[in-house]
Amino acid sequence: MDIGIVDLSRLQFAMTVMYHFLFVPLTLGLSIIVAIMETVYVMTNRPIWRQMTKFWATLFGINFVLGVATGITMEFQFGMNWSYYSHYVGDIFGAPLAIEGLMAFFMEATFVGLMFFGWDKLSPVKHMVVTWLVAIGSNFSALWILIANGWMQNPVGAAFNPLTMRMEMTSFFDVVFNPVAQAKFVHTVSAGYVTAAVFVMGVSAWYMLKGRHFELARRSIAVAAAFGLASALSVVILGDESGYETTHNQKMKLAAMEAMWDTEPAPASFTLFGIPDQEARETKYAVHIPWAMGLIGTRSLTGQIEGINQLVEGSEERIKKGIIAYDDLLKIREAKGDVSPEVKAQFEENVGDLGYAYLLMRYVDDPRTATQEQIEQAANDTVPTVWPIFWSFRIMVALGFSFIAVMAYFFFISNWRGMRYPRWALHAAVWIIPTPWIAAELGWFTAEFGRQPWTVDGVLPTALSVSHLSVGDLLITLAGFVALYTVLFIIEMGLMIKFIKKGPYQDVELTQDWQQRHEDRLSGRSSSVTMPAE
Fold first, then answer.
1. What would the pLDDT profile of 369-395 be if each residue is shown by its tens digit?
2. How much is the pTM?
3. Which of 216, 218, 230 is nearest to 47 (CA)?
4. In terms of CB atoms within 10 Å, which end of the chain has fewer, N or C?
């Protein structure tokens, strides 16, 4: 087994995913914000809200198109770079992705054209419905993709067939309502909502600092602050739910996130700061918050969170059971299923640990011939590299709490200080625009890197999932993807900056006339400006 091919395949997929995810959060959140703004327009018939809707929809459209362009190639990679993975679990993993394409993507593609070109062809209410359908389609897309990803984290509703050597779906209901998938979905879309809220707030703050588009900017900040505050609170609350599910389904990932080397007496403490040392299996200069991790992970004062060393010992036992299952598997395949009831019963008893036997294939072709030393090596392989997960998680959490503070401040100013934002706060809003993307990328890194060495947790090791490619093939395609995606990212940034500088260019006269009339009415003056009929 060439580990270099595995590492290059992982690097290529990680690069394409993380590039793609630069576009996804803004699409998820901005679609909802645009729909909210248009709803206000339909309810009030104020042209300023129509102008806001069109302006932010333009930025949404740029991001949406480039997000689609970067996302399409990823599904092809499952066949190109991860062919054994596709063969082994394609019956389950492929179903949510197919539904995502047939339901969510087609829904988005159908209505996004009406959203941009139907302003003069649809009534305001019908156009608002179309905009909401685009937003719902975008979020449906995330739902089905995260159902597929959630199954990789917690493979429920499926069973291994020894005759076909594939995982087969046993319950579509269990796959769809997988608690890990549902927790990931709500946490991920909430993070996308925060990303869009920070983006809208930052761009609007820049307009106010430049003295441009004042009415659009201050209303946009008010919407973003309210939407962002609710979303930021949701991210933290729903992130807690994700942590709770991880305690039950991915114990090693949780232990690595916490750098918890040994099981602590319940309730376990949370390590606020420390420097994990994987070789010594200790965390130096650790600063602990008593009880916090036990409460987060188990929601009790008595539940234990297992440490890495104890989980490695448990992995050794599972590898030994997996070897028994592997031996029975070969007997079943050789006899084409016609084996004694005792062999079948023994296989069924241990098949849940078969994936652990596959970990040995990094060291030996036949797991049954593995030595105790090789079993110990494979058990140690179940520990991901701790320090990147440890710090990624903490930076993500710190940013999450900072978003709550920022949104709460702007929400307070918007509602109780007449939208009179201090200049220092507007400058801060501009500077923090990149931070939600940093938090989102760190979150995905924690989730996916923390799952290693598994592609499907406890079922299929990453080292067995790759296609039979050469290092040259992977280096050429990796370079090609980096070049293409970098160009697309530059195009995205260029178009975004161009249209932000251009500002709201649609319905300008209509909005200005309405604004003048509105100001005259507030000041008690009569106005000669006549509002155009709509």
1. 999 999 999 999 999 999 999 999 999
2. 0.91
3. 216
4. C
